[in-house]
């Protein structure tokens, strides 16, 4: 019998890449999907796997639907990738973010504890929990100081995972993932916002790109690399928490430069700083130290930022040209 995995957020960027990885490894993949009027499965179609995933309707805010999905799928592994994942929106929807990104984790852990205690659990934590950084490079021992409702909600999800691991001896691990991008990233995220705009400006469909703090520094990697780390965590004998990052930090400004240079443009001619895009509480620098993951999981990032931006630019040029 194949291994069975249940993925919340299966229609998101990470969910799609993880589903593809697990299917390639021979898993039976189940996905939790919320009812939406818009098309949410386009990423799965992009990867050619839409028809290979078994879907369960449910929502992280609804404990009963989570329990049904766990009971019906009978998974050996559960990956909680579902979230309200856009930091900016968390300021406009702080309560929803808290329920989905915080309480939703408890719903999953309770369902596993009651109905599938041998199941291994992965929680998608985030570098946004570090926020106002307390160390130059952030690792598993760096104190947290979140600076947004998203970071606070994710911190609850992180600590409740630790609590269930220690209190109920569940195999529950958290991946503290730094920024990870791909051509499947949502347009609201800054990397896609930049590559989409660069493509549109190059093709004469847009004139400028409005951004906030372009001197913010982030540790950017490729989502396709990072989902491998998720899977590796659940293959370990002992559950634990791991920082997943490249160990290299780059400004939004330099990321813009890479994207616009790919199409022969100077970003300074097109990028406009707009105060409305600044956060109420800025996170100026994030830089991860993935030494533990490299040593214990044997994981290393494979894709440079330059290669990642090239991938995203080529995908956006094709898409915009078809419009």
Tell me about this structure.
The chain has 323 residues and is an alpha/beta fold. It is built from 11 helices and 13 strands. It has helices at 13-24, 42-46, 63-73, 87-92, 94-115, 149-168, 190-202, 223-233, 252-262, 291-297, 305-322; strands at 4-8, 28-33, 54-57, 77-80, 120-126, 171-177, 180-181, 209-211, 217-218, 221-222, 241-244, 250-251, 271-273. A 7-stranded parallel beta sheet has the order 3-2-1-4-5-6-11, with helices on both faces. Strands 7-10 form a two-stranded parallel ribbon. A two-stranded parallel sheet has the order 8-13. Helix 1 (13-24) links the parallel strand 1 and strand 2. Helix 1 (13-24) packs across helix 8 and helix 7 (190-202) packs parallel to helix 9. The chain is globular, with a radius of gyration of 19 Å. It starts with a strand and ends with a helix. The model has no long low-confidence stretch (mean pLDDT 95). Its cofactor is NADP(+). Its EC number is 4.2.1.47. Keywords: Lyase, NADP. Catalyzes the conversion of GDP-D-mannose to GDP-4-dehydro-6-deoxy-D-mannose. One of its GO terms (molecular function) is GDP-mannose 4,6-dehydratase activity.
